[in-house]
Design a protein that fits this description.
disordered C terminus; Alpha-Beta Plaits; alpha/beta; TRHO_N; Rhodanese domain-containing protein; five-stranded parallel beta sheet; 18 helices; Oxidized Rhodanese, domain 1; TrhO; Rhodanese_C; five-stranded mixed beta sheet; 21 strands
């Protein structure tokens, strides 16, 4: 530039237009004998534009650095920040986050002490609590929660506890210390995963601890595989990340399919193979593991299991280990061949310690994780810093979507799992139409899953109990049914097929929640025997199952007759013993 003072580099400017005005003034007033040609003005304009780009880049890098400090930067921003500063990637691996807190001091509080914190943990107990011990443990646990002003939800079963709680930073840590003081043998090896700095809307409003028969609804009841004898091992997040690169390994996601739809492990191309069980709920996992095709896929392989926090992997890996041991001993199902028996069972069973939750803490950019991690708390999802396109899609319009909002469930009556529906569809379509049309991905693909596969039989050492039951009969009695249940729903829940007769009141001919299924002696015996080990529930109601009468009964067949809750005393149909 030939101007007597620099306008392109040194002088602070606001726009190119102002530079041109200054350039024209200086050309006319200061150097009247020398004309400024178009090339000089073009040079000045180019210099000014370069200056503006430099200032924008400076402001952008400052904003990216601020976002990174707040944990909000995306992959592009992190890359630009690292490039501009010459440092390593902003979302580098954090090995300290992979370490478990078992038998260790809890991590110090971080962030604003006024913001709530969250703790996620589970504890398995072997041997299980007795009925009296279970009740006392539940009361003690609730008292500790209330004493530290914690809110959240959890499950307390004879086999242990599983909870997600929110509260103050110090209250959360004091509560964990109180648990260790209460029962050091049970809570000493627990990995307390604490997250500080939650938003107020992400904190729970009330405390709900349910008394249940299982921590994970695998439907195994008392026939739970023992963790003490399991051959499965734990890997921390760094070791698990390295194991995903093993081409001889198979990655198994033991979560539900609606969780896998929005996020899952995606090993490298020349690494482990991903195997999706495609289950609607945890009840289908034991059946899937017991399926002959699953055994064949896993035989001789290194199995890498994972779930959200680790609790589902504990039982699933122990079950797979026990099935493999029984198969190696010659107790495989009848469908298995001799070759399959000889090579049955995985070479190794491992799981990531702390689940996906701790893996994403260790690898903030996601590592080999793709999508969002579905959470069962008010955070809804856990996302890596590396932004990605949604893996899921809207059940109505098909656009990419990965937000489960509005409590939309599958329209199929026997499914009812959460369904993805985008915000425009929720605004445009009426709730009634959404409830009748939205289907999960498995139902849209007409995928039946592992419902018809036999559940594995786990040996249980229990004292024989004398019970007054009818002798085996070809008919099955089912009681305590929901008043709006349908025939297909009953048969699907019991995994049988046969002629169903609705039992009705003699005077009013109203259905009152019982039926008789003519299914054969073998099928009836299998259902009754299974009911002794663990409860069979339908829509949350525990069914009463037993052998029906030897002779046919009078009732209604086909479509369920009208029903009404018995407001008065009915003269119920009496079935002679």
């Amino acid at each position: 530039c030939r101007l007597p003072f620099c306008l392109g580099i040194c002088a602070p400017v606001r726009s190119v237009d102002s530079h041109l005005r200054i350039a024209a003034f200086s050309t006319a007033a200061i150097q009247p004998a020398r004309s400024v040609g178009p090339s000089s003005l073009a040079c000045t304009s180019a210099a000014l534009q370069a200056r503006r780009r430099s200032q924008r880049a400076h402001r952008g890098s400052h904003e990216l650095a601020k976002k990174h400090r707040l944990g909000e930067g995306n992959h592009r921003g992190s890359h630009e920040l690292a490039k501009s500063t010459g440092s390593a990637r902003a979302s580098a691996m954090r090995p300290s986050e992979a370490q478990s807190t078992a038998f260790k001091a809890l991590p110090p509080a971080r962030g604003n002490p006024r913001q709530p914190s969250l703790v996620l943990f589970y504890a398995y107990r072997e041997p299980a609590w007795s009925a009296a011990e279970h009740s006392r443990a539940l009361k003690t646990f609730i008292k500790l929660c209330e004493a530290h002003d914690l809110k959240g939800r959890g499950r307390c079963a004879p086999e242990g506890v599983n909870c997600t709680l929110t509260g103050g930073q110090q209250q959360i840590r004091a509560f964990c210390a109180a648990l260790r003081e209460w029962d050091s043998q049970l809570f000493g090896p627990v990995d307390f995963k604490i997250t500080d700095g939650l938003q107020k809307k992400e904190a729970f409003k009330r405390l709900t601890i349910r008394k249940t028969e299982e921590l994970v609804g695998y439907g195994l009841g008392q026939s739970q595989p023992q963790l003490a004898t399991s051959k499965a091992t734990h890997l921390d997040a760094v070791e698990y990340h390295k194991a995903l690169e093993d081409p001889d390994a198979i990655v198994v996601d033991v979560r539900n399919q609606y969780e896998t739809e929005i996020g899952r492990m995606r090993p490298p191309a020349n690494g482990a193979k991903f195997l999706d069980p495609k289950v609607r709920n945890s009840h289908e996992i034991p059946r899937w593991l017991n399926a002959p095709e699953t055994r064949e896929r896993l035989a001789g392989k290194r199995v890498l299991m994972y779930c959200t926090g680790g609790i589902r992997c504990e039982r699933a890996s122990a079950l797979l280990s026990e099935l493999s041991s029984s198969c190696a001993g010659g107790a495989c199902p009848a469908q298995a061949t001799q070759d399959a028996v000889a090579s049955a069972g995985p070479k190794e069973i491992v799981m990531v310690r702390g689940g996906v939750e701790r893996y994403l803490r260790t690898f903030p950019d996601g590592g080999y994780w793709a999508g969002a991690n579905y959470l069962f708390d008010r955070r809804f999802e856990q996302r890596p810093l590396k932004r990605q396109a949604p893996l899921g899609s809207c059940a109505l319009c098909g656009v990419p979507c990965d937000l489960y909002r509005g409590r939309v469930v599958c329209a199929v009556s026997t499914c009812k799992v959460p369904v993805l529906v985008c915000q425009p569809c929720r605004n445009r379509v009426s709730p009634e139409e959404v409830a009748s049309k939205a289907k999960c991905r498995l139902c849209r693909d007409n995928f039946a899953g592992s419902k018809r596969v036999e559940k594995p039989e786990i040996a249980v050492k229990a004292a024989p109990v004398a019970e007054k039951t009818r002798p085996p009969a070809p008919r099955l009695f089912v009681g305590n049914l929901p008043f709006t249940v349908e025939r297909e729903e009953v048969l699907s829940t019991l995994d049988i097929d046969g002629r169903l007769t609705w039992l009705v009141d003699r005077e009013t001919s109203l259905f009152y929640g019982s039926c008789v299924i003519e299914c054969g002696v073998d099928a009836a015996t299998k259902v009754v025997s299974r009911a002794k080990l663990y409860p069979t529930k339908l829509r949350g109601r525990k069914l009463r199952l037993g052998f029906g009468p030897a002779a046919p009964v009078d009732g209604a067949e086909g479509v369920r007759p009208p029903c009404a809750r018995p407001a008065s005393v009915f003269t119920y149909l009496r079935i002679p013993r």
